[in-house]
Amino acid sequence: MSQNNGMDRRQLLRLAGLSAAGLGLTAAGCGSGGSGSGGPVTIRHSWWGADDRAKKIQQCVGLFEKKHPKIKVKTDFQQYPDFWKKFNTQAAGGNPPDVIQNAVTFLRKYEAKNVLLDLSPQVEKGNLDLGGFRSGLEKFAEIDGKLLGVPVGSNSMALVIDEKVYEKAGITPEIGWTWDDWLAGLQKIKSGQKIAGDAGPHGVMYLYDLILRQNGKAFFSEDGMGFGEAELLPYWTEALERVKSGLYADPGKVEQIKPASATAKGLSAGEFTWDNFSVRYSAEGRSSYGLAPIPSTDGKKTGQYLGSLMLSGTARTKHPAEVATFISFMTHDPEVARIMGYDRGVPATTAQFEAYQPADAPSKAIGAYETAIADAGVLEPITPHPAGADVIEAAFLRIGADLALGKTSPKDSVKQFFSEAKTALASN
Amino acid sequence: MTHIHTSPGELDAGDGRSVAKRNGPGGNAPPAAPERRNRRENVAGYLFMSPWIAGFLFLIAGPMVFSLYLSFTEYNLFEAPRWIGLQNFTDMFADPRWRQSVEVTSWYVLIGTPIKLAAALAVAMLLAQKRWGQSFYRAAFYAPSLIGASVSAAIVWRALFSDDAIVDRTQKVFGVEVGGWIGDPSMIIYALIALTVWQFGAPMVIFLAGLKQVPRELYEAAEVDGAGPWRRFFHITLPMISPVLFFNVLLETIHSFQIFGSAYIVSNGSCGPADATLVYTCYLYEQGFVNSRMGFASAMGWLLLVAVGLVTAVLFWSQKRWVHYEEGGR
Questions:
Q1: May I ask which residue range the UniProt record assigns to the signal sequence (chain A) (predicted)?
Q2: Which of A33, A99, A284, B82 has the greatest count of CB atoms below 10 A from its CB?
């Protein structure tokens, strides 16, 4: 590699020359487009996800361009971690895409850095329709009176289970079941079915948030951590014991099948994740998969809330009206719902919710699950996620995995986690 | 390794000016004319080089100086860098993950480089002898160097060393039940080392060139004196190729310190499990681009530069003791 440096530099230079030329061209293009001559306006949209999501979004974009011939949408997508690395660099360089897919852990981070567009003026101008959202979801990304995103679909945490294993073990999870019931189930599965009951929940921040919320706390407070070492140490100590006793899946094996999921690959009978992720299980695995409710501490409170992916505009966009028009289209058009299905959760607006009637079993299960938890009245408002929440989520996942692999003691893991959380909160 | 023998044609071709003088229109012109032409040629030369020089200044030297400044600041890409003096460096030494990254990288360099060079030298010695199909074998052994650093090779590596894949099954045949290496924090680093050793083709070719330079007479004389193969290796081959060996050690060591792609991909972008493949650049990348701590990442980068510089200096200093240059070679 080092021998080729000269070559690489030359290539880089050539690339730089080309991109400089390209910049000149786009600048020229912008100049003519922005002069108000009424020519087509181009906005850039990027998101994270796999190929199938890209295909669906591309279809929606085609539809949008047909209905709005004066707006062109240029698209780009990556996998989740790569998406944010790229977006961070683009935003820092002052050249972010005009519309991005967004998640709650990133809201405050980019709000603090003035990266996100406040969409509320566009609501007043009538470019963005905020009517017809289910269960108050339109407020989901409202921070300090600013509208920083519009939800595309609701999701909620769930226990994805291998239905065949649960059935053979004779366990039927129901709303209102407790952590003790769940644990008894794991033991039954382990002794009867010779498989780990769970993939190991100790690194899943969103689940631990629910457990804390069941006990009157939360993962985050407005500007920091909502819990301390006293809560986490027993949780992780217990997790390590369960890994060792085989109640949770072999972490070395879980590590190797990534990015596939442990339950789909037959390493465990279940795992906690977002309900809309369950669609991919039937594609990845051989069994049939279903959604079970989140266990509770007291038999009632699950701590759940409706989460959602969002579409956000970026503050530096030259075309806020077109951005709003696009977001409005993506969240309200019934045709979009029929194309997207439950890929990004159950559609956030009633119009889209009613337009798409799932035909496949996993999607039907997601719809039924969200209706069931809404009817059971367990949904509560979401607690805040401060700037740096994304880094802390990644640290929780990584340190949780290290712990399970027996690399660090629970005590050291807890210490390491809080030290990294402190750095993340300070530097973001 | 200099050649005393020079062909007559090369004598005047070595001096560009004499050639220019002879070929120019005014062969007997006063000396000022070629000088002016020289200056013009210099200008032309620099003009042709200017894209490269500009590239070096703006894409390499400039960013380097800027990153040196950043290493004394806290910088999250969005807000202006804030001067914090040496705090990035003190934070680094207090950070257990940074220490882990140093440990993993040192381990990788200290184990991987010698094995790779030993393999390269051994195969080079086999291939130095005239045998049937020699060119084919040379090409075959060199091929991994061309593709080994690629993303696809790393992906294949991940597949090879997973549970129930070929390595695991082969182990089981011999009764070794350790499972796939990829999921095992204590084994995965050896999968990475295996990947780098597999790419021994580049140093091998250099060794081959070195071996060809060793005069046959020395071996013949030693054989007459009754020296066996080992003696010949340690007393003739090794000393005679020591400059080449030095070059390879230097290059491979520097190269190994910079490992990133294979660790990142074999671990599926996590540099895990349990930070077992958290090589230095992987941690640098994570701090800079995932955690937005560009100041810290810059400080790490500069420390790596200093460390590699020190190692290089030590190697250069040590060569007095073990590298033998032929007279006039240096």
A1: none
A2: A99
User: Under the phi-then-psi rule, with left for phi > 0, alpha for psi from -120 to 50, and beta for the rest, what region is A246?
Assistant: left
pLDDT tens by residue, B6-17: 444 444 444 444
**What pLDDT is attached to residue A381?**
87
Burial class (CB in 10 A: 0-12, 13-18, 19+), A266: middle
All domains of chain A in start order, with CATH? 39-154+307-356 (3.40.190.10), 157-304+379-427 (3.40.190.10)
DSSP assignment, residue B205? H
In 3D space, the residue among A30, A53, A410 whose CA is nearest the CA of residue A235 turns out to be A410
Nearest to A288 by CA among A215, A351, A365: A365
Q: Tokens representing A117?
A: 């567009």
Interchain CB contact of A378 with B (< 8 Å): no
* ipTM of model: 0.74
Q: Note the pLDDT tens digit of each residue in A310-327.
A: 999 999 999 999 999 999
Weakly modelled stretches of chain A, pLDDT under 70: 1-38
Question: CA A222, CA A387: separation in Å to the nearest integer?
Answer: 10
With 0-12 / 13-18 / 19 or more C-beta atoms within 10 angstroms meaning exposed / middle / buried, residue A199 is buried
CB atoms closer than 10 angstroms to residue A45? 23
Specify the DSSP class assigned to residue B60.
I
Taking a C-beta distance cutoff of 8 angstroms, is the pair A312, A148 a contact?
yes
Instruction: Let me know whether B227 and B254 are in one domain.
Output: yes
Gap between the Cα atoms of A363 and A344, Å rounded: 11
- B64 and B104 belong to one structural domain: no
Per the CB < 8 A criterion, the answer to whether B272 and B186 are in contact is no
Residues of B in contact with A394 (CB under 8 A): 290
Does B82 fall in a domain?
A: no
Tell whether B92 is covered by a domain.
yes
Which residue in this structure is represented by tokens 């949008």? A64
Residue A385: CB atoms within 10 A of its CB come to: 23
- Give the dihedral of Cα atoms A398, A403, A407, A410; nearest 10 deg: 130
Note the pTM of the prediction, 2 decimals: 0.80
Q: What's the CA gap between A196 and A152, in Å, rounded?
A: 35
Q: Are residues B175 and B35 in the same domain?
A: no
**Which residue on chain A is closest to B59 by alpha carbon?**
A13
H/E element holding B260? none
| Domain match, B133 and B256 both | yes
pLDDT on residue A319: 96
- Closest Cβ opposite residue A252 in set B96, B179, B268: B179
Chain A interface includes B63 (CB < 8 A):
no
Q: List all residues 6 or more positions away from A254 whose beta carbon is below 8 Å from its beta carbon.
A: A199, A200, A262, A267, A401, B183
Residues in A closer than 8 angstroms to B163, CB to CB, are 253, 256
Residue range(s) defining the domain that contains residue B57? 10-70
A102: closest CA of chain B, how far (Å): 16
User: Are A85 and B59 within 8 A, CB to CB?
Assistant: no
Do B66 and B211 fall into the same domain?
A: no
A61 backbone dihedrals φ, ψ, rounded to 5°: -65, -40
Q: How many domains does chain B have?
A: 2
Residue B246 shares a structural domain with residue B107: yes
Residue B149 has pLDDT above 80, yes or no: no
Is A427 in contact with B96 (Cβ distance < 8 A)?
no
Q: Using one digit for the tens of pLDDT, what is the confidence trace for A351-382?
A: 999 999 898 888 899 999 999 998 998 999 88
Closest to A322 (Cα-Cα) out of A67, A101, A93: A67
The answer as to whether B247 is a domain residue is yes
Best residue in A255, A393, A416, A428 to probe B by mutation, most B CBs within 10 Å? A255
- Residue B329 belongs to some domain of the structure: no
